[in-house]
Amino acid sequence: MEGKMSLIRARELRCKVIQTKRSKIQKPPKQESSDSDPPVLPRSKPETIEPEAVDISHSLFLSPAPQAAAPGNPIMEENQGSLSKPVAVMACITMTLFYVAILYAPTLILRLPPPQSFKNFMIRRFVCAAVSSVASVIFVPLILPISSLEASFLFGVYGIRSDHLWQAVVFPLFLTSLMYVGSLTLKSILLVNKWKQHRNQDGRPLFDCIKSTVLSFPSQMSSVASNVLFWRNFVVAPLTEELVFRACMIPLLLCGGFKAYNVIFVCPTFFSIAHLNHMMEIYSQQNYSLLKASMVVGLQLGYTVIFGSYASFLFIRTGNLVAPLVAHIFCNYMGLPVLFVQRKGLVSMAFVAGMISFAWLLFPITRPDLYNNRTNNCRCWQGYCSWS
């Protein structure tokens, strides 16, 4: 009996211990405050620090990613505008067809009599090309998502700028001349040989031959300036073609969502289409066979595609219309580059050296920061904000 009683008492003690433990867990003991504890102060609200204003022109020029529009900033509001790729392409096709079709409008639509001379014929075409260019310049702002129609703003969109003018002339002209090092070498050799022949015939020293050539230069320039082909090749054609096929079309394509490297190869397609009318002119006027006319025009189209890509590259990289314009004039003056001349290996070596130099300097000499200040307001569709 005594053993059973001891077991019962042990169980009761265990139950009391478990109950006391449970009560301690459920009711934590109160913390007694002492004089040594510091008083608890009420929490204060955190101060709000307003962000400082940021110059968006710097960040827009350096960052390729589009930024959110800031209120009251017309440039950032313009970047929110949308232009679909089909609309941009259709607008470029429309301008291309209009540029070619208006050349035949005086006789086919206006029913004007044919011009009596070649000079009158070319002057009529000059007027048609000018009308087409002006119409394209007016047409593009109606499609581009821009809010400001100020003249200075629109000139900036077209790359018509007065800042960084000497850079836009000198650097592209030097870069383009590297492709014609072989041609320039051949011209120099022929010029020296011509001076030697005059010296042998007249018995005059080489200095006198150079002096007579320099003195006759003004009269030669006056005769050239009076030639209508001079105005076509070096003034009207470069100016109107660069204005329509570069200044008007490239902003449309870039703003339509095309990447810059795609525009470089897409835009020359429209430029080459505008030269297809030469095939019918060569076939009908020069009595060429259809095959020969096709070969001549095919070579011309290939050259226009290559040059159009280069001119588009210059416009996108520099954001200045003067850069492709001076390159266009220089290429029209030089013609096709001379690759090889029989028994003149120096010309071929010069051509190879020039092309290597051209490829080496193509990107460094067309860096966008050479032609634009970082603080300038940047137009996203001009392409010099970023190269992406």
Features of this protein?
0% strand; 17 helices; Rce1; membrane; intramembrane prenyl-peptidase Rce1; mainly alpha; 388 residues; globular
Describe this structure in words.
By secondary structure, this protein is mainly α. It has one domain (83-216, 224-385). The chain has 17 helices and no strands. The protein has helices at residues 2-26, 56-62, 74-79, 85-101, 105-108, 118-139, 151-157, 165-177, 181-202, 206-215, 217-225, 228-255, 260-273, 277-285, 290-318, 322-334, 345-361. The protein is globular, with a radius of gyration of 38 Å. The N and C termini lie far apart (99 Å). Residues 29-81 and 378-388 have low confidence and may be disordered. InterPro entries: Rce1, Rce1/LyrA-like_dom. This is intramembrane prenyl-peptidase Rce1. The chain crosses the membrane at residues 87-110, 122-144, 164-192, 243-274, 295-316, 322-341, 346-365. Residues 228-334 form the CAAX prenyl protease 2/Lysostaphin resistance protein A-like domain. It comes from Theobroma cacao (Cacao).
Q: How far is the N terminus from the C terminus?
A: 99 Å
Radius of gyration computed on alpha carbons: 38 Å
**Secondary-structure element string:** HHHHHHHHHHHHHHHHH
Helix content range? 55-70%
Number of domains: 1
Main sheet properties: none
Shape: globular
Mean pLDDT over all positions: 76
β-sheet strand percentage: under 5%
Number of helices: 17
Beta-strand segment tally: 0
What ranges have pLDDT less than 50 throughout 5 or more consecutive residues? 29-81, 378-388
What structural class results from the helix and strand content?
Answer: mainly alpha
